[in-house]
Amino acid sequence: MNNFQTVLCEKHDSVGIVKLNRPNALNALNMTLLHELMDALEAFDADPEIGAMVITGNERAFAAGADIREMAEASAIEMFQRDMVGQFDRLRHIRKPLIAAVSGWCLGGGCELAMSCDMIIASETARFGQPEITLGVIPGAGGTQRLTRAVGKALAMEMILNNRTLTAQEALQHGLVNHVVPTQEVLPAAIKLASEIAARSPLAVLLAKEAINFADESFLSNGLLHERRSFYFLFATEDQKEGMRAFLEKRTPHWQGK
After folding, report:
1. Catalytic: which of 28, 40, 57, 112?
2. What is the CATH number of domain 202-248?
């Protein structure tokens, strides 16, 4: 994972960190970056030493959108064949928790990338928006769907139809982000949250994430059934026995991921 051109990767104990690294382009998402980002996340997802992951950018921008230079003159057929948006589908198959640490601009495809993560830690300078309408298009990587689920129909309409951006505090108020912290603390805060989650029962974390996503993407009755089956399944694991014994014995559990 050291040969990437557009992302930087490192481990912080049980946390995998991927940093978008196109600073001169405000981390605009081109095909190379998206391919390398997904490759890096999939590698961390397959690494048994990693329990959770963080995506971040720099202080100026998490990602200021898709790379317009790659798309400006493309035809509909070229866009369909290139299938840049299809790269986002790979995120939906990442099983371990994924946290976005956002500072500065988080626009268009960058906002869609952050919303595709499981949680968002925002710095006080973060600005969220879907400005595609100003380019004569609409969000294409989940923006109309995830933003509406996160902030509600009325605000999503204003953001997508009229290019309203949200400050970090507004994003927190409307449920788009988990926490707002000073800029210098955004990555440490995301790593701390990821580390705490990575310290929990691995199987329970995977199944909990799966069930929450199922709830977000399905009807309540289907989600309740999915949740119940996952809950019962965990009683076939050693971690469940260890966790409950540790509780009764007033000690810290030792997770095995089995």
Report:
1. 112
2. 1.10.12.10
Asked if the domains at 7-198 and 202-248 fall in one CATH topology, the answer is no
Cα torsion 200, 20, 59, 213 to 10°: value is -40
Sketch the domain layout of the chain as residue ranges. 7-198, 202-248
70 has catalytic annotation: no
Reply yes or no on whether 78 is catalytic. no
- The catalytic position among 57, 104, 108, 109 is 109
Q: Is residue 49 annotated as a catalytic residue, yes or no?
A: no
Q: What are the tens digits of pLDDT across the range 163-190? A: 999 999 999 999 999 999 999 999 999 9
Spot the catalytic one: 36, 101, 132, 194. Answer: 132
- Tell me what percent of the chain is helix, strand and coil, each rounded to the nearest 5: 55, 15, 30
Q: Rounded to a whole number, what is the distance in angstroms from the first to the last CA of the chain?
A: 28
Looking at per-residue pLDDT, the higher value among 87 and 180 belongs to 180
pLDDT tens sequence across 185-226: 999 999 999 999 999 999 999 999 999 999 888 876 777 787
pLDDT above 90 for 40: yes
Q: Which CATH number fits domain 7-198: 3.40.190.10, 3.40.50.880, 3.90.226.10, 3.40.30.110?
A: 3.90.226.10
- Distance between alpha carbon 179 and the CA centroid of its chain, in Å? 14
DSSP secondary structure letter of residue 142: S
- Options 66, 171, 189, 194, the catalytic residue: 66
The reply to whether 66 belongs to the active site is: yes
